[in-house]
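User: Predict AbrB family transcriptional regulator's structure from this.
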Amino acid sequence: MAKTTQPEPLTGEDLLQKVKSLGNLSKEEKAKQCGYYTVTKNGIVRVNMMKFLNALIDAEGIELDSTSNGQGRGGRTASHRIRVQSNGNLLIGSAYTKKMGLREGDEFEITLGRKHIHLKQIEPSE
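Assistant:
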């Protein structure tokens, strides 16, 4: 009996494109078509749904794991949306400044567009 090599499972954009091209197939069949299966010694095909679903989540760029690194309870996460406050201010929360690696005292130049605000960091003079 000749041993066949199993295909490498698809990941990233290749995985997303393949899943979209498979249309109305079942989840299990899509997983199989994308290489997320194993064949037992007895020739039984087993679909690895957890690996397939995790690969889809990764390919979509969805972050499910906590990024608090054990510091406190985590709190709210950045939603990439803000709302003008009743006093007319826009508040950019610490989740954004931490993600950008900003520190107290960092300065920015504000440029207004039609419907956007551009912040350009001003480098401290040496």
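The chain has four helices and four strands.
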